Amino acid sequence: MEWMSRFNEALGYIEAHLDTDIHYEKAARIACCSTFHFQRMFTYIVGVPLSEYIRRRRLTLAAFDLQQTDEKIIDIALKYGYESPTAFNRAFQSIHGLSPSAAKQQGALVKAFPKISLQIMIKGDVEMNYKIEKKAGFRIIGVKKHFSASVDESFTQVPLFWQKPLQSGIVSDILACINREPYGLLGVCTALDGQDFDYYIAAASTAPTPKQLVDYDIPECTWAIFECIGAMPHAIQQLQKRIITEWLPTSGYEYADAPDIEVYFEGDQQSPDYRCEVWLPIRKS
């Protein structure tokens, strides 16, 4: 599995640089995807954000050094990226439940978070309905918000972004623009350089862009289009995780340089029968 091998190589890079600078961009290049997609995939696969995994691994190694070497606490703190003893002490206690000085004592109990290695686990107990389609480029019209924090932090803010246009009624203006497929309200995530991305709440349209809205051109791309059935947002969150952890590693495809798209159709989003779609941009591995 080439995809899995590249991801494990990226993990190896991270492991080798825990005591120095880790560049997310370099890890993503090793995995052959954007920084944005690498962080997103990591969170789905591992279950914790990349930044938190790195913090846990560094503090695990710091505990080893405290117990097995004569290095000073301040030197160990600097080694793992903490510029002050206070910051190191606070982070260490949050993980291990005791101070660095206490961890040096014989018999002190500390925690260990082992390094990870990706392996494929074939489940197949729940089906995923999807189709592969190549689509010409199309234009969307809507509202957008720029996110520049880490991917994991920013995605907790995306649901909050939806609230404002829904409450203001501007979603009605967006829906009025729909005149081509996909015929639904779109959530479009466009990865930019590094960790930045723009998120659009939009509609596919060839109409002129109203003054209060913005537009964006979706490039021609091949998409894996997944059917999602269930109450929002749980159903779509679970599907997105399964796509990354179950479908993508064994599919023979990898992320393409195009936005992620969610297509929301009319209906009661809290109904167990509600239907929407997830469009994953793909290319052959």
Describe the model:
By secondary structure, the chain is α+β, with helices and mostly antiparallel strands. The protein has helices spanning 2-16, 24-30, 35-46, 50-68, 73-79, 85-96, 100-103, 151-155, 158-168, 170-175, 234-251, and strands at residues 130-135, 138-147, 185-191, 197-204, 214-218, 221-229, 253-255, 260-264, 275-284. Strands 1, 2, 3, 4, 5, 6, 7, 8 and 9 form a nine-stranded antiparallel β-sheet that branches. Helix 1 (2-16) runs antiparallel to helix 2. It starts with a helix and ends with a strand.
Quick recap of the structure?
The chain is of the alpha+beta class. 41% of the residues lie in helices and 22% in strands. The mean pLDDT is 90.
Structural class: alpha+beta
Global shape: elongated
**CATH fold-type name of the largest domain:** Multidrug-efflux Transporter 1 Regulator Bmrr, Chain A
The number of distinct β-strands equals: 9
For the sheet with most strands, the description reads: 9 strands, antiparallel
Beta-sheet strand percentage? 15-25%
Low-pLDDT runs: none
Estimate the mean pLDDT confidence: 90
| Rg of Cα set | 22 Å
Secondary-structure element string: HHHHHHHEEHHHEEEEHEEE
> Would you identify the CATH H-level superfamily of the largest domain?
Regulatory factor, effector binding domain
Approximately how much helix is present in the residues?
40-55%
- Report the span from N to C terminus: 10 Å
> Count of DSSP helices?
11
CATH architecture of the largest domain: Alpha-Beta Barrel
Count up the domains: 2
Task: Please write the CATH class name of the largest domain.
Answer: Alpha Beta
